[in-house]
Design a protein that fits this description.
The complex is a heterodimer.
Chain A lengths: L9 E8 L3 E2 L7 H16 L8 E5 L6 H7 L7 E5 L7 H13 L6 E8 L14 E2 L14 H16 L3 H15 L14 H6 L2 E4 L2 E2 L7 E11 L11 E9 L22 H9 L8 E4 L4 H10 L8 H4 L2 H4 L13 H4 L6 H12 L11 E6 L6 E7 L5
Parallel strand pairs in A: 3-4, 3-5, 11-12
Antiparallel strand pairs in A: 1-9, 1-10, 2-9, 5-9, 7-8, 10-13, 12-13
Chain B lengths: L9 E2 L8 H8 L3 E6 L5 E2 L14 E6 L2 E10 L13 E8 L5 E6 L13 E9 L6 E8 L3
Antiparallel strand pairs in B: 2-3, 2-4, 5-6, 5-8, 6-7, 8-9
The chains are: A alpha+beta, B mainly beta.
């Protein structure tokens, strides 16, 4: 029996993006953005778009695979997949599911994608028009715990108090994202640097730890990656990037209702990270760059700890701007600007940046980057994880 | 007067009745939590079976309405239109030692700018929302008198 792992079996052949916009500013409808990103990814890969035979996305995606397949004139659609729930937590899971389908021979050329026009679909308006609510949210919504910032700050506060972590650690995360966005002309915050003073002067969103710049943006845009069998790489236009491991899910009762997860002050990676590293056959110290979903900086802090990059007790010391930026930092983080400062593509932009780093094409390149870790989620359930590597890491 | 401005969606029990005993209890100023009649495990939020022993024999029991603050937050940016003029408010996660340390979200009544400490003892305060239809009671919390 062959080893049941994805390691080295599939490659990310192409990456594509629409233009990125502030929320509500896209002149292009959502579905058209999705198609633009997919066509760009096929062009990047050097693949005829008609070779695409599958689609994988995650919670709340509106551009349906069957419509995409018809619109693009695909010969055959062999795989449609949506990772359940968890908001952005399913991003790396979507790529993992695409990789699993390709490795198993269910499909040959699967697109992983996200398209969003958050303004047009009134994302964030929540339940404002609803006269009643019920279900799990009934236990928090009537107390004014409504937005993601409000749902997650409770975890962050507990974690930071438990480990004596100060807000400067979160500031370093926000500043690293903005620092990298200044080198990235695609970034919505390109040309808008963030200073320590501006961070400290920004308004509080949820006390004690989350200011405006600790929160991701809301944007319009679309991003796509194309996953193919490893055997295809000799015919591809770009340097191949291989999937070494993908993990998704939760630990014990992490999604227990009404904030009753036994391990509450967590980003949700304690069960995933060990099996991710084991499958990939690498250690945290081997990783050249991390691309971590930042809905809020507090989630990044916990995610970095749970992936073994430093101990919670060392967070104040480790999380400095200098340590987090390319090219020379100890752990170059979100080198495109990410969800905070490039575009909130619900983490798919971070997967694309991981690929760019391993191709050597990032606007904030880490010298000779061979291994990148991408994490989707923090603080939601389920979460998901991905390690990608260059040919020499196989 | 209620802690938060009126106008948020009205909480109603699920159509299948899963959480109805909690809301009925709150209206009578009783804090009701699920407890497995087989193994004694407390459970919140409610579910149809015990997560520990998988028994479907679950009771609702009244527990002493005191707890301690497990975590807290002060919201400065409200997202619902009804809270636009609210100003900052406190949300706390309360651990209930009389119910196996299950946790419950509520508001900490009193000055919204008060200093809050993890671990502080709190006591439930039942907040009636009087309405012509769908009247309901929220379980809120106050710092316990030391």
């Amino acid at each position: 029996m062959t080893e049941r792992t994805l390691r080295g079996k599939v490659a990310i052949a192409g990456i594509g993006e629409s233009l990125y916009y502030k929320r509500g500013k896209s002149p292009t409808p959502e579905f058209k953005l999705a198609v633009q990103a997919i066509l760009a990814a096929a062009e990047d890969a050097g693949i005829d778009v008609r070779q695409i035979d599958g689609f994988a996305s995650f919670a709340d995606e509106r551009s349906m695979p069957v419509r995409l397949a018809a619109a693009l004139g695909l010969t055959e659609l062999r795989f449609c997949n949506l990772a359940w729930d968890g908001g952005g937590g399913g991003g790396a899971a979507a790529l993992g599911n695409a990789a699993a389908a390709v490795a198993a021979g269910i499909a040959d050329c699967v697109v992983v994608y996200r398209s969003i026009t958050s303004g047009a679909f009134r994302r964030g308006a929540g339940l404002a028009g609803n006269p009643t609510i019920s279900g799990d949210r009934v236990t928090w919504y009537p107390h004014g715990m409504i937005s993601p910032a409000q749902m997650f700050a409770m975890k962050v506060n507990r974690f930071m108090r438990d480990h004596g972590i100060g807000s400067a650690a979160l500031r370093a995360i926000a500043m690293a994202s903005y620092h990298h966005a200044q080198m990235n002309p695609r970034a919505v915050m390109y040309g808008k640097p963030l200073t320590e003073e501006a961070y400290e002067a920004s308004r509080l969103i949820v006390e004690p730890f989350h200011r405006l710049f600790d929160c991701c943006m809301e944007n319009d845009g679309a991003s796509a990656l194309i996953v193919v069998p490893a055997e295809w790489v000799k015919n591809l236009r770009q340097k191949p990037v291989y999937v070494l491991a993908a993990a998704q899910g939760t630990g014990y009762r992490e999604a227990a209702r009404s904030h009753n997860a036994p391990l509450y002050a967590s980003a949700g990676f304690t069960s995933l990270a060990p099996r991710l590293y084991e499958t990939a056959g690498v250690k945290p110290t081997d990783i050249d760059t991390v691309q971590i979903y930042e809905n809020f900086t507090g989630g990044v802090l916990m995610a970095l700890v749970e992936h073994g990059f430093f101990k919670a007790e060392d967070a104040n010391e480790f999380l400095t701007l200098e340590n987090l930026v390319a090219p020379g930092g100890k752990l170059p983080f979100n080198t495109s600007g990410g969800n905070l400062a490039e575009c909130y593509m619900h983490g798919v932009g971070l997967q694309i940046e991981a690929v760019r780093q391993l191709r050597g094409h990032s606007t904030a390149q880490v010298p000779n980057a061979k291994l990148a870790l991408m994490a989707s989620g923090p603080m939601v359930a389920p979460t998901s994880d991905l390690i990608v590597g260059t040919a020499e890491t196989l | 007067m209620t802690y938060l401005a009126e106008g948020l969606p009205v909480p109603v029990a699920e159509d299948d009745g899963l959480d109805a005993p909690y809301w009925d209890g709150a209206r009578q100023r009783r804090l009701m939590i699920q407890r497995c009649s087989k193994c004694g495990t407390f459970q919140w939020g409610p579910e149809w079976l015990c997560h520990s022993c998988l028994s479907f024999e679950i009771d609702w029991v009244e527990i002493e309405p005191t707890g301690r603050i497990y975590s807290w937050e002060r919201v400065w940016h409200p997202t619902h239109p009804a809270l636009k003029e609210q100003g900052p408010y406190l949300v706390i996660l309360v651990e209930l030692p009389h119910a196996g340390n299950v946790r419950m979200i509520g508001n900490l009544l009193g000055d919204p700018l008060q200093a809050v400490q993890i671990g502080s003892a709190v006591t439930a305060d039942f907040e009636d929302h009087k309405r012509e239809d769908r009247a309901y009671t929220l379980v809120q919390w106050r710092l316990a008198k030391s």
